[in-house]
Amino acid sequence: MRLVVDLNKCQGYAQCAFLAPDVFAMHGEESLVYNPRADEGQRERLARAVAACPVGAITADGLEGAGAAAGPAGEVSDGR
Predict the structure, then answer these.
(1) Alpha carbons 35 and 25: distance in angstroms, whole number
(2) Cβ-based neighbours of 21, under 8 Å, separated by 6 or more
(3) C or N: which end of the chain has fewer Cβ atoms within 10 Å?
(4) Of 30, 69, 29, which is closest to residue 46 (Cα–Cα)?
(5) 3-state helix, strand, coil in the chain (%, to 5)
(6) What would the pLDDT profile of 17-33 be if each residue is shown by its tens digit?
(7) Residue pLDDT, tens place only, 48-76
(8) Going by C-beta distance under 8 Å and a sequence separation of 6 or more, which residues neighbour residue 55?
């Protein structure tokens, strides 16, 4: 799975780091660091992190079979 974060859009809200700390981390108060090649075991957490970004700075290829599938505009649906 490949992640891309638009660091020009990222505002440092750190929702991704809270939801997927093995993939995203804050370096200081404003700088995000992340693993662009996330482990498949992080799929559910990554789907939630992508959806939780308030500015939509995170995109992920390969999230289509996650328990909570990312939908249009980063919305997450649990199928209800």
Answers:
(1) 9
(2) none
(3) C
(4) 69
(5) 25, 25, 50
(6) 999 999 999 998 879 99
(7) 999 999 999 999 988 765 544 444 444 44
(8) 9, 10, 11, 13
Token digits of residue 5: 């974060």
Distance CA 50, CA 46 (A): 6
CB 19, CB 70: distance < 8 Å? no
How far, in Å, are 29, 56, 66 from residue 69 at the CA level?
30, 16, 5
Question: Whole-angstrom Cα distance, residue 75 to residue 4?
Answer: 17
